[in-house]
Amino acid sequence: MKYAVTGAGPDLEVEVLDPPAGPGRLRVRVHGREYDVGWSPALGSTHWWLEWDGRRQMVAIEPEGDGLGVTLAIDHLDLRVAPASPLPRKRREQGGTLQTVEVRAPMPGLLVTVEVRPGQAVGAGATVAVIEAMKMQMELRAPAAGTVREVRATGGREVSAGEVIAVLVPDGGGR
Amino acid sequence: MKPIRRLLIANRGEIAVRIIRACRALGIAPLAVYSPIDAGAPHVRLADAAWPLPADAPAESYLNIARLREIARAAGADAIHPGYGFLAENPAFAAACAAAGLIFVGPPAEVLERCGDKVHAREQIAAAGVPVLPGTGAVSDEEAVAAAGRIGYPLLIKAVGGGGGKGIHVVDSSADLPSALRLARGEAVAAFGDSRLYLERWLPRPRHVEVQILADAHGAIVHLGERECSVQRRHQKVIEESPSPALTADLRERLGAAAVAAARAVGYVNAGTVEFLLDSDAFYCIEVNARLQVEHPVTEMVTGVDLVEAQLRIAAGEPLGLRQNEIVRRGHAVECRVGAEDPHHGFLPSLGVIEAVREPAGPGMRVDSGLAPGLPVSRYFDPLLAKVVAWGATRQVALDRMAAALDEMAVSGVRTTLPFLRWAVRDPAFRAGEYDVRFAARWDEWVNGRQPDQDALLSAAIAAALWAHHRHRRTVLPRTATADGWRRTARIESLGEGS
Predict the structure, then answer these.
(1) Domain B207-449, CATH
(2) Confidence of residue B162 (pLDDT cuts 50, 70, 90)
């Protein structure tokens, strides 16, 4: 079974070969070279022991959107992995002609205030909202100058990570 | 003198566990409280008994003075330990305890009042001949704008009622002052229920060095040497060590004497910390922290003194029984704070439920932890999960032990600061002891500028492919080492079936 791994520099093809090398061991081919790889659960549903080329390390893997967050001892990589197949990769359609920018909550927390209203012009870096978690307050700023098209959340409410707070139409990006 | 027999611990997490251990050493019955999401937390299980608090929000739980007093009465407690944070430096709470005939394990209310008024405390400390930084008293926004011109930029906004790095903002120019004041007031209200702010000169690259002191109710004060706390993120300490690699013997002696003078100036009683900024060989006292510090274990490791035990004895009215020349420091200790923050995404809080934990051990190691499977990590509380402490005969040995311990540790369920800590203790400048309060900011440059090496890329790619392989295969392959592993693998695969 072949997997295409993308997201970290050059695309890689990793082939998992049958039969496995033994109990808890797999055979993997990368860059035309075959490795005998140890792979077993290490902790919870996220941490795995990976052993190859004479080195054993713990790797944490968590689904992240439609990709995978892979954390090694120090490094973290956002990867995408899919069975390598001749199917053409889906391209995301460009929605409409109106370009918009979303201001999203970077973390779950309490939305303290929303400081803009629809139709309001905002400068780049202007405060759009203030969010609080773990006693820390953080300003969400407009990534570009533009006009507020939509406000989707109100102050005093819990928001989840990635939730859209407001939608802006950047200057020069309209129509 | 009034012995303590039953101690109510008005806190949670690792510090509640730490206090329970001190109780066990002294034969005191430890009594816990818990908010709903902490019902399964380690401090609840380790205590002799535990009482629920009405809700998770701090005002309803660990800041709920009225409920804590009721519980103390119902539990037959004769003393309350506030830990750090929450009510630790709240004079009203200390006074309420005293009024109810309870021993508050910490400084008396009037000392908390004095230390909490940072502006006034600084005047008293300066009057005792200890150098302090230029700054203002509590200021309105208008007064801040006027005073800022005199102090000069960049400057610091700090909360009068603050501590623990909360409500502190660096302001680079007058244009940024209004929005920084607004954020700082918001944080100050949220964290301390007090919106008052003051300004202070900001040194660009100081080291943060603090001195542990112990003072009894009979006028004896000793210091237990310094802690170097320059590795900070958002003004929160993340790595501390003792002794500081920055001090000469002469400077260390002067700093210790200054700390004792500062403590005496504010009439200090119980365990406390005098914080200084060190700018080459000049030092400035910034405040007296009237509580047990998060980083107290490094001092315990090098002095052998149990600081929580000392707190309990002092609170019960016992004399210190420890003279300055009897405090001998041995070897080197370092502490790393493991927090639920994602170091690869701007250290944003990482919330979730702890699934599993692996904590390190070995010669010279100590882990103070509040972690347990099933524990929710919520937005209500501080992100600190556990403190990993390493002792060695030399700094080199302590850091080597720490590096190995951080590699051993793993937490499943939330992202943690472990990758950052692993990076820091291997950094050549840190290893050489040459770092200041700007050190941690280098992580961001490093993370953003770095292209992981070929080995790391290949490891990650292979791991990602094997993970996907497991999800997509119906049969369990390969056979894993433990029954637990089997179950986990099976569960993961069944999750993958639907997709």
Answers:
(1) 3.30.470.20
(2) confident
